[in-house]
Amino acid sequence: MTRLASLLASAFIVLLPVSAAQAAMPEAATALFEARTVAARDSALSTLETAAPGDPASAYAAGAGEFFTALELLASGLHRHGFESPQSFMLPLMQLPVPANPNPEPLTYEAFRAILVAFRDRLGKSAATLGSVPAGADIGMVIDLTHVGIDLNEDGTIAPDESMAAIMTALSRGSVALDGAAPSLTFRFDRADGYWLQGYAQFLMAQADFWLAHDFRSTFDGSFHMLFPRAKLPLQNILVPPPSEMGSNIFASEWRIADFISMVHMINWPVVEPERRKAARQELLEMIRLSREDWKAIRAETDNDREWLPGPQQKGENPLTGLEVGEEQVQAWLATLTMAEDLLEGRALLPHFRVTGKGINMKRFFDEPKPFDLVLSITGPGIAPYLESGKILTSEDFDQIQREFSGGGFLTFALWFN
Prior knowledge:
The protein is 50% helix and 4% strand. It is mainly alpha-helical. The two termini are 20 Å apart.
C-alpha cells in the first residue's frame, strides 16, 4: 500500500472496531466488533450505549461503534441508489468502495440530503459519546483490522470482503495482500486514540454541514448521474452512455470528464441553512482542540504497545504507514494547528494569488455566509466580500512547516495525525 493511499483510506475507516483480549474489555464490546450480522452488532451497540454513562470503556467502544455505523449509513444509502465511486480525492465523502447494485432505487435530491443528514447526525452522536470518556480513563483495546467491518451492500451481514482491511485494500487499488504474508494490522487503541477518532468525526461533520448549508440541487440535477448512473436522475436518459462505455474512474472516459466539468461549473450554491455553515467552522475548531488533546495524551504515554499514532518516545515504524514520528514533526504539527486556528478565528488571513495587501477572513466566510461559487472563489470575485487588511499568511509560513515533514510529506502526516 502506498503511504498516501494508505492514509486516504485510513482517514475514513481506521480506528472503528475494537477486538480486545483484555479482561477489562466489556463483553458487549467484543460482541460489537466481532459481529458477523448487523442485528448482532446493533444489539451489542445498544447494550454499550446503555452502560456508557457509568463505564468509560463502554462509552469508548460505543463511540467507536457509532462512528463506524455512521460510515455504514452513508455506504448503505449510496449502495441503495447504485452509487459508482469516482475514485477521486476531490470528493472525499464519496470514496467508500460501495459494491455494485444491479437494481438501484431512484434517487431524489431530497433523499440524498437525507442520507447526508443521517450520516452527520450519527457522527455527532459518536463525538458526544467519545467526549464523555474521562481524560484519565485507562483504555486499552486491541484491534485487528482484518476481523471487523461494516455492511456495505445492505444484506444484513458483515462479510470478510467488508472488513476494514478489505475496504482499505479497495481504496488503495488492491495493493495490500490479505493473506498470511500481509503485514500485521493489529493496534492497541488507548485514550489518546479516542481523541483522534472524535476529531475525525468533527472533520467529517464539517464536510457534511457545509454541503447541507447550501442548496446544491442544480449540481445534483445536472451532474450527479456521474455518481448514480442508473438512479433515474433528470439527465440519465440523455447523458449516461451504455454500460460498456462507462469506464470505472472519474477520468477514464470522455463522458465522466464532461460531467466532472459540469459539476465544477454548477457549484454556485445559495445558502439555505446558514447555521450549518457556522457549525462547520466550530466543528473544525473542535477538531483542532481534540488534536492538541491527542498529542498531549500521546506524549504522556510511557508504553510502546502496537501504537496507532506513536509519539517521538515510541520508537519503530508504524506497520501501516512505514513512518516514525519525531519531535520536530510534532512541533510542526502543533504549529500547523495554531495556523489553522488563527485562520478560522480571523486572527490571520488567507492569501489569494490575485490580491495584494489583503487576505480572506475565513471566520467571516463561515459566519457571514453568502452563495458559494467554486470557480469565482478560485478566480477572485467570489471571495471579494471577505477580503480585509491584516496579518496575511505567506508561502514561507507554509513552506517552513512542510520542511519539517521531509520525505513523508505534509499531507501524509496530516491525514495520519488529524
